[in-house]
Protein 1
Amino acid sequence: MVLWEGRVRRHERVGGRDHLVLATEAGEVQVHFIRLARNLEFDRSGYRVAVKGRLVVSSGRTGRLDGLSLILLEPPKVWGFSEYLAGRSPDLVHLLAWTILFHNPHLSRHEAEATARSLEQAALVNSLDPLLLASLVQIESAWDADAVSSSGAVGLGQLMPFTAEGLGVDPTDPAQNLQGAARMLAGLLREWQHLENPKASALAAYNSGPGRVRRLGGRVPTLSEPTNYVYFIGYVHRNLARTARVFRIQDQAPGSSSVSRPSILAAGSTSKVRSPR
């Protein structure tokens, strides 16, 4: 199993299945999705993405990648943040709304900015870096307020119903879901604040459960899902933070430093590959 990053040169749907041509520094890779995957509801040509899948090798050479899932990292250049602003002053709400819209282009600008304001407020109330919370939501649900996972996790922050009940929020209400996600993440960050990289521990606990991380003394579990989860939230966070710096957007909560990539990767877990070797 590998994770491959690149920019989509072409996106086609044939026989109900998605096919991508992924451009990387070392050349093009054919990606065939063997099942329906989130984030492929719209044409993603031009997007920078990360694809998780199985590498098919023939005669010692990379044949194709059988894709299982896909994460959007950046929109096409014509959908850049400057184009979204169209002369308006850059601020945090505009940055978040732009991110929401390139995931869900069917939404109106008003809907995207309403969600962005809800996230900004949730981060502020819980003293969180809003870009970290936004990165978590991007990986959890791809900004789909109606998302329901196979395990029953609900909404933008993918809260389990019993977790939402404990947090005192309605997970089907987008604004309350964000408040619950922020409250949970803030609590996990406080729990692991004494560690060298509390953000990695907190994110791993959000993904795989606090109990598992506690049993490991705060270490990120050496399993593919939590290590990949922490990695991609860190990647998205760094991208958002870089855009915020370029446009001189000030975060409105403390703790805005980037999430460090965990140095661990379990034997036999998913490999992270930026370009074909």
Protein 2
Amino acid sequence: MREMAKMLLQLENVSKRYLRHTVVQDISFSIFEGQSLAILGKNGSGKSTILKIILGLSKATNGLVRQLRGDKLKIGYIPEQFPKNLRFTPDEYLYHLGKIQGLSSYYLQKRIPQLISQFQLDTVKNLWIHHLSKGMRQKVGIMQAILHEPDILVLDEPLSGLDMTTQQHLIEQILSLKKSGVAIIFTCHEMDLLRKVADRAIILEDKKIKEDFMLQEEIDGYMIIECRWHDSKACDLLRDVDGVTEYISLTEDVWRIQVVPSYSDRLIAQLLCWGASICSVTKHEDDHYEHKINEIFQT
């Protein structure tokens, strides 16, 4: 059986007020290792306020923010607007930030060249940051946020104002971080980023969480595979298959299996290897959340 992901951070009934104005109210959710959570909502819905509370840049008026690793939890942050007029090269900027964070010179001399190569900034590493394009500055922003190898990466509108080519490259870098086990919390207005990166999404409305759902199941729908399969260990085998969300034995040798669409081909191949015969494959879609998200992104 796969090991359960460990909880890193938990918000419990968090509210934030400025004088008599309530920004967010009774916000509760958790984030786990390797999970990617999108916080969605119209402008002014409180998305950035929640990020600031998570980062410790703003204190909740009520409720609790629990860091399950205590002081050992490392969080990186990429703001929506990266400073433009920095008279440092990427190498110098990262080195000075690293020293401020208490990282050793030995560590930084190894880590910084790795990041510059990973983000393909070798050709501009000796240019001042204020001479770089917005896309390149955003890459430097991500590099500074992951310099100390954080457990959680917080991104506020990371693709805002970038061209499509740069957006795709940054999405690839974010996915690579996610695969390495970094938890991602982000806000965005791009459906492509949402579909490719997020496992889960919450929608803010009227200062509260209006919707909380697993993205692949609700936006992409799900596949239903019915098959003939006689195996006494069927339940044990299906329990450990990635993408399977539900399964039931209809008769002694007929199974109905629900699976995330992106995993359906892999599951069919695995069932055939186990000796099952496929009876039918159908797709079920629910466009409720997609309409809701499109409405938000258009504001």
Protein 3
Amino acid sequence: MTMSYDVEVKDLWFSYDGEWTLRGVDLSLARGELLALIGPNGGGKSTLIRVLLGLLSPVRGHVRVLGVEPGVSRQVSYVPQDTSVRRHFPIRAVDVVALGRKDPWRPLTEEDRRLAMEEMERFGVASCGELKMSQLSGGQRQRVLIARAFVSRPRLILMDEPTANLDPGSQELLYRELKAFCDGGGTAIVASHDIMAISSMATSVACVRGTLHYHPAPEVDPGAVLLAYGTCPVELVAHGLPHRVLRPHGEEGSGGSGAS
């Protein structure tokens, strides 16, 4: 029987103005996986996420998200890296979260706002509900957008540096909620520079630096150590078991399902 994947990418190439940002990327994620997407600035992490969202179109390659071509779907939620808003933009924080539930053909309802407030309470920003987004701190805006990602009860969550503005307590809460989400059958991809924290929760790790170095599951290898972060391949040690990222996709010996 052919295995189905929530995310399936084959031979993905993408360029900005003729410069290749992603080259021959292959990636397969089954339901329930939490992928830690790591790598240096400019390596292509954000670009890969935007391709999976349908915001960017690849030059070539096969991309399927929840079995279809990428596009707008309430089954897919997104937390962007940039949380900035225009100073005088009037939208309230609770409405930003509630918009995560809104269908294009109907207005927001009180039920939408009630569920939005539940998620804001969960992430510690319920007191900000009536404030405009422009009145919030960077960390508060980040938590509002995280609450919006969860409010639609999605199947897949894509997050781009979601802890960049968060204090340690909020980071721990987010990672705990992400783990519970994936344990419950959701799938998540989290781009992060917080290597040790995210890798301790991840079921798989990928390092993106133009090409993609992928490891689908931790293997017992006491000799694995954290090597230079800015270069691939790298090895990650977390929660007593190492995640090992050894070779680019397609290279003999890279191993593992989804690393074809």
Protein 4
Amino acid sequence: MEDKYILAEWMNNDLPKEELDQLKLDPDYSIYNSIREHAAELNTRDFDEDSLLNKIKLRKNDTGKVIQMAQNWFFRVVALILISLGVFMVYQENTNVVEFAKKGAKSTFLLPDQSEITLNSDSELKYKNRNWDNNRTLHLTGEAYFKVAKGKTFEVNTTLGKVTVLGTQFNVKARNKRFDVVCFEGRVQVNHNDTTIILTQGEKVSFENNDLIIQKKTNATIPSWLENELAFEQEQLKNIIEEIERQYNISIGYDPKSANQLFTGKIPTNNISVALEIIATTYQLQPIKISDLQYELIKMNEI
């Protein structure tokens, strides 16, 4: 420890002459002296107190900027989340729920209010799930049977007309230019163009090409297609063929000019041979099977 103090005094030129003479006798003196000479050549900056203080202030300001930037980043993330949530809610509110029954099949499902819907083959129903209890509005393409739970107005829109109810059971069919509505329970209001008709239990109405063609009573308690039958009344052959194609998911070739006679009757949906035989007998046609998915109806005199 004493040697360290001696060297320190020597470096500062404060070492007494007797001790300096003694130090020069040290074998390492030449090394000490060399270190001293090189150290003297080193330049150090003068200490600037004001400059140091300014640097400290600048660092403090920089820290504040970092904090501010972090805060801005946080608020931007929150804003982005809120905007995304808003967009999602608007999307949900304006997005339709779509139910579909493909050809050769039926589909039964419940609406948010527990109303039960059965779609006939090749039919589609759209509605908005959000706020359903206050906006019970649907859009139907094809045919469906409705068992409506009591509640606010229940509205079924089609391209051919509209049906409005509160709580009831009814069937709606809108295909081509024909619009059929049957009320099985309660009351329904049918709107077709400028015509409004109120149906009560056991009543039906049909429009075709914008004309009212049927308005009568019926003894049916449910749609016939729920019991594997298609019931037609004053129906064109074109519509009958298309309905059979939907029910069996097949293709039927025929000459549209083969008959202008309207058909009234029932056709099974679980036996294609019987179904085609009924049509063939009525219109004097001959059914020919080309494949499991393709048939033809030709005139008897063309065989």
